Amino acid sequence: METVAGQRCGYCLTPQAITGAALEIEHILPEVAGGLTVEDNLWLACTACNRYKGRRTHGYDGRSGEWVPLFNPRRQRWLEHFSWSKDGAEIIGLTACGRVTVDLLHMNHEEIVGARSLWVQAGWWPPES
Ligand SMILES: [Zn+2]
User: Which residues line ion ligand 1, judged by CB < 5 Å?
Assistant: First the structure.
């Protein structure tokens, strides 16, 4: 599974190699919502995304006025739901799913945006896909 997930967070794409912080195995559908500990329901996430996601499965998208499921890194393509800001430091939600996932998982929290800015300067960021 770790090979498939590419050693980076399935949500914010933060790679373990840049942060030195071990990724966590997370339940895409949380256990409290009936998610099983089987490969099809597991993915890698950074500590921040995993913590903020917690037991959440859906979020309210103010623009569309709908409750939508959070992004599923195993079933959905990242580039269909997210893009990078012009400076490469922030994640922009392109769809209702992308917007609620960026918001609820705090994918642009101050510390990670600061780190991404340095990664951009180093030529490591943003990732191509
Ligand atoms: Zn993350």
Answer: 9, 11-12, 14, 46, 49
Residue type (1 letter), 88: G
User: Please, are residues 100 and 58 in contact by the beta-carbon 8 Å criterion?
Assistant: yes
* Alpha-carbon gap, residue 30 to 34, rounded angstroms: 7
Task: Say if residues 6 and 46 touch (Cβ distance below 8 Å).
Answer: no
pTM: 0.93
Q: 35 alpha carbon to ligand 1 midpoint, in Å?
A: 20
- The ranges assigned to domains in the chain are 2-122
Question: What distance in Å separates the CA atoms of residue 67 and residue 85, rounded to the nearest whole number?
Answer: 25
Q: Which tokens belong to 29?
A: 């559908």
Q: How many CB atoms lie within 10 A of CB 67?
A: 12
What is the per-residue pLDDT across 83-128, written as a single tens digit (0 to 9) for each?
Answer: 999 999 999 999 999 999 999 999 999 999 999 999 999 999 998 7
